[in-house]
Amino acid sequence: MVPLTKHLAGYSRQTFAKDATAGLVVGMVTIPQAIAYALLAGVPPEAGLYACLLPMILYSVFGSSEHLVVGPVAIAALLIVSTVSEYAPKFSSEYLSITQIVCVEVGIIFMMLKILRLGSLTNLISHPVLTGFVNGAVLLIIISQLPIIAGVEGSSGLSAIGSLLVLAYKINDFELLSMVLGVGAIVFLICFRRIIKRRKVMNSDTASLQGNQLLIGMGPIILVFASILFVYSLDGATNLRTVGHIPTGLPSFLIPDVDPQIWLSILPGSFIIALVTYIESYSIATTLATKEQKTINSQQELFALSAANIGAGLTGAYPVAGSFSRSSVNYFSGAKTPVSSLICALVIIGSLLFFMGFFSLLPLPILGAIVVLSAFGLFDFSVIQQNWRIHKPDKFSELITFFGVILVGVEIGLIIGVFLSIAFFLQQASRPQITQVGRVSGTGVFRSNERYEVETSPDLLFIRVDENIFFGNANNIEAKLLALSSRSDFPTHLIIVCSAVNRIDSTGLQMLSRLSSRLNESDSFLHLSDLKGTLLDKLDHGDLHTRISGDIFDSANECMIQLEKISDQPNVRD
After folding, report:
1. Which pLDDT value is given to residue 131?
2. What letter does residue 243 receive in the DSSP assignment?
3. Beta partners for residue 525, in sequence order
4. Residue 386's pLDDT is what?
5. How far apart are CA 128 and CA 140, in angstroms?
6. Distance between CA atoms of 539 and 537, rounded to whole angstroms?
7. Angle between helices 176-202 and 127-150 (to 10 degrees)
8. Residue ranges of the chain with pLDDT lower than 70?
9. Which helix (H) or strand (E) holds 139?
10. Strand 454-455 with 434-440, pairing
């Protein structure tokens, strides 16, 4: 239950040195990101830093990943705005109070998924739907930062197109210095990353690759410190918007409001946040664990993320998840255990106690640029053409989810995508592939008549059903097979090869019984072959043998041998 104790057994100075170095670097990377994501979520900047304290400590104690860094992330911030903004204005005390409730609800949902062992519910979000959702959310995040970079007030509650139209209407109010800083910061980060990646190509050894990844993470730190010094040098001689006052000190424990109506109203949004953040966190943890040839305990992750989010809710923060960028920096900085996250938390504590006046000078356009580049890194273009070539319904699910998120909203867009992917799955399952098969010469293997040169028999027709036989497709299977039986050259024996069938429900059994009766009227017989043992055991309770006019064979090859011997008999049963 406490994986951290395993890492502390035999803990050495050398390991601590590596963890401490990684923790210091991740801490410096985290501070500007935490402030930026807090403003994106509509909560005070200190709430982003609070999300890096107790949640990070709790995850490092209970999490099964050695390198995952938990804290504020862009997608969770956007989902918070979508969930909470309709109940209270952003940056208000009521808004923050509702955000705390969301944290606790997300934690409770994680715990219920663990107790009921329902972590597989996350499989409801297929990869194409998740890709479309993330790409759409990233675009919304980028659009939300454009007013900050332009130095004008943003418009909340509008769609992506509406926000762009309002921004275009305010073009005469754009602040030149703000735009120069914001655009310049984006250009700097892009060029910095390309220079480091070019160095990566020239130096391909492992140590250089890790150093390159670490240097990429240092880009925002350089940018933040340079911009703060720049604002300090101006000595208030400009209207450039900065973060402003951030309270010094550590968070207090706060009990969220207990209004049942609010808890019930935001529960659907909390459930979506839980699903998305768990998928994001588990994927990152698994990716990093694979590099070390280790595994992640999904049940332990649910418990750890539950504790982290409840901790966030009790300390005035907002929902947390695994961060891809900070976890990568942690890994490539040489972290060996979750102690690096504890060091990172100490860096945040030191900043909250002594350096908030320094970070209050941080320009908002710089934070906007950091958010834009961080979000842009989440875009996934690689699967766009791949999905179209492999499975077109996946592409439609991805595109409709993407446009749904942009035009309707992140939550509704995701729900549309999930239901659409389920609908495509049911449509495919309801129209299974039915293939005529025969025996490959010289073997006992049966393959498609169209793809292979196979042996067939005039009195035998082998049909392979490439899907489970259940209520959703039973009638379609029956209709197709009856259509075949209406041919004048229909043989005496129809054999359904069930090698791809894992389940036959009661509706499927009824269909097989009806089909057998209809074939009997034409002096034809229905047989089954290649039924799996576990399936056959279940079907014995349904008296499968009495429902069909023919026999059940272990394999199609055995069926062909036996029926060819007795094909001249009027009935296959003695």
Report:
1. 84
2. -
3. 493
4. 65
5. 18
6. 6
7. 130
8. 1, 155-158, 199-217, 381-391, 541-542, 567-574
9. helix 127-150
10. antiparallel
Note whether 53 and 314 are within 8 A (CB): no
Contact 120, 298 (CB under 8 A): no
- What is the phi-psi region of residue 505: left when phi exceeds 0, alpha when psi lies from -120 to 50, beta otherwise? beta
CATH superfamily of 434-565: STAS domain (3.30.750.24)
Compute the distance between CA of residue 227 and CA of residue 186 in angstroms, rounded to an integer.
13
The secondary structure element, H or E, covering residue 454 is: strand 454-455
Going by C-alpha positions, the residue among 195, 189, 197, 198 that lies closest to residue 222 is 189
How far is 23 from 342, CA to CA, in rounded Å?
7
- Selection from 426, 422, 417 nearest residue 398 by Cα: 417
The pTM of this model reads 0.81
Give one DSSP letter per residue of 494-514, joined into a string. Answer: EEEE-TT---B-HHHHHHHHH
> Could you give the 3-state DSSP secondary structure of residue 556?
helix
Tokens found for residue 78: 């956007």
96 touches 384 (CB < 8 A): no
CA-CA distance, 376 to 141, in Å (whole number)?
9
| 491-523: b (≥16 Cβ within 10 Å) or e | bbbbbbbbeebeebbeebbebbbebbeebeeee
- Rounded Cα–Cα distance for residues 426 and 420 (Å): 10
Q: In the chain, list all ranges with CATH 3.30.750.24.
A: 434-565
Residues 6+ apart with CB under 8 A from 166: 155, 158
